[in-house]
Design a protein that fits this description.
477 residues; alpha/beta; Protein-Tyrosine Phosphatase, Chain A
Length: 477
């Protein structure tokens, strides 16, 4: 939390504060928080007016002052503003500077503050949510809401930290080379976690090696004594260890050389991983509260951070067992009457798609229930998109999933792959849009089914999943 006057913020940014034109309003207030959404304004807030593709924050500056904003950070000079205004060339970079200075001040006054960064092609949000649940015994923990993992969301998260914060957990995403270098310049890390390198954003990076190179930037953002926690089961992640002194690298995974190791891994009938967490100090039996064997990687990462920071093994096991999804549309399992819905429609790439489908198939097989997969497009796969979708369609058939519905032109190759692999007749279907998908579900869904919704977020499939859950709940009343 900030505690600065508008003039002090302007001085940090190397610009002058413009007092504003409304002499009837009492200024200056002290700035205690920073927001980018005009609907979140409270007295003492600094409003960052970002020019987006669809909405220009400058259009809301008058309104935020009426709602009690302490100041506004703007880049447009073609209008007058009623309250204290800080004019900069780039408001996003200025936001990063404010966050960078805030964290530096906290570190000067709070030597026990630990900053943890998490990156990877899949699992970032789940892992940061787990860390928020596991690290509580150490003291106050700040984690990002939703997927605040870019040049806007990360600074906003940093600015939530206070002198009382014990651990600041940051999710770090990358859409282009240099992104993680910039994010770690705002928040140099004490612990950097790298989960998995997969075909997410392959369009931007050209290859898996390109994705790995972008993810490796997080290690260059470590503080001099910082520790890298790397997934030893992923060859591309493991290879990043060569960039650091071996004493600063700790592996997690199922391999025998992993410092934080899962042994005896098995899956329960509810689709939850069970294993023994082995580390240099203890061996602890764990059963995850989260559904999906692929969450083993996320749990090991969160467990490794927790043990490294001193959380006792039994406490880690207890917290992992009671952990539940904290962010919407990420392996969220809802039982409504006789139907189980797995809503994993926030994002998708080939790795996460296979993990979700394996969970569906395993859960259905163990319970003797019918499996239904509702799949949309995986975005940003570049030139290999058709091949990757075709492969997922074939994978669906090999898992013996009972029913498949694909939605939209981008997922047509997924349907084609399933058809070519032997899924025809009424086993697989393709529709053009969400309305047609809803009609298909109304006709096909039966009591006893387990239905998975999975696609990239921009396809809108998450809204269909939520609509189905809401309607099923309504039918139970």
């Amino acid at each position: 939390m900030l505690d600065l006057t508008p003039s002090q913020v302007a001085e940090e940014l190397g610009v002058n504060l413009i007092p504003g034109t409304d002499s009837q309003t009492e200024f200056p207030q002290r700035i205690t928080r920073v927001v980018t959404d005009s609907r979140e304004i409270t007295p003492g807030a600094l409003f960052v007016a970002i020019e987006g593709e669809r909405v220009d924050g400058h259009d809301f500056v008058d309104a935020v002052f009426a709602d009690g904003a302490a100041a506004a950070l703007v880049s447009r000079t073609d209008r007058n503003y009623p309250g204290p205004t800080i004019v900069v060339d780039d408001v996003v970079q200025a936001l990063g500077t404010i966050a960078r200075n805030h964290l530096a001040r906290l570190r000067q006054n709070s030597p026990n503050l630990t900053v943890v960064g998490v990156t990877g092609s899949v699992g970032k949000t789940t892992t940061k949510d787990l860390l928020g649940q596991l690290l509580g015994p150490l003291g106050p923990v700040v984690t990002p809401p939703a997927s605040f993992n870019n040049e806007i969301g990360l600074p906003i998260t940093v600015l939530q930290a206070t002198p009382q914060t014990r651990v600041l957990v940051l999710e770090m995403g990358t859409d282009a080379p240099g992104d993680l270098t910039y994010l770690t310049s705002i928040a140099p890390l004490d612990i950097a976690v790298v989960l998995i390198v997969a075909g997410a954003h392959i369009e931007a990076f050209g290859s898996l090696e390109g994705v790995a190179g972008a993810k490796q930037e997080i290690l260059a953002g470590l503080r001099p004594e910082g520790i890298a926690l790397l997934n030893g089961d992923d060859g591309l992640v493991r290879g990043m260890a060569a960039s650091l002194d071996p004493s600063r690298v700790h592996l997690f995974g199922e391999g025998q050389d992993a410092r934080y190791r899962a042994e005896g891994v098995e899956t329960t009938k509810d689709g939850k991983a069970r294993f023994t967490l082995v580390d240099p100090q203890a061996s602890t039996d764990v059963e995850l509260g989260l559904v999906g064997e692929h969450n083993l990687t996320n749990a090991l990462a969160a467990g490794a951070v927790s043990r490294l920071l001193g959380v006792e093994g039994p406490t880690v096991a207890e917290k992992l067992a009671s952990a539940r999804p904290q962010s919407a549309h990420r392996m969220h399992v809802v039982d409504v009457g006789e139907i189980r819905v797995i809503d994993d429609a926030y994002n998708a790439n080939p790795t996460s798609m296979r993990g979700a489908l394996k969970t569906l198939a395993d859960m259905a097989d163990r319970s003797g229930r019918r499996s239904v997969a509702i799949l949309g497009e995986m975005l940003e796969l570049g030139e290999g998109s058709i091949i990757e979708h075709d492969a997922i369609g074939r994978f669906v058939v090999r898992l013996n999933i009972n029913k498949l519905l694909t939605i939209g032109d981008g997922a047509r190759a997924l349907y084609s792959g399933a058809y070519q692999e032997g899924s025809w007749g009424e086993e697989a279907a393709h529709v053009d849009n969400l309305d047609q998908a809803r009609s298909w579900l109304d006709e096909e869904l039966q009591d006893g089914d387990i239905v998975l919704f999975k696609s990239s977020n921009a396809t809108g499939l998450a809204s269909l999943a939520q609509q189905v859950i809401t309607d099923l709940e309504g039918a139970q009343r």
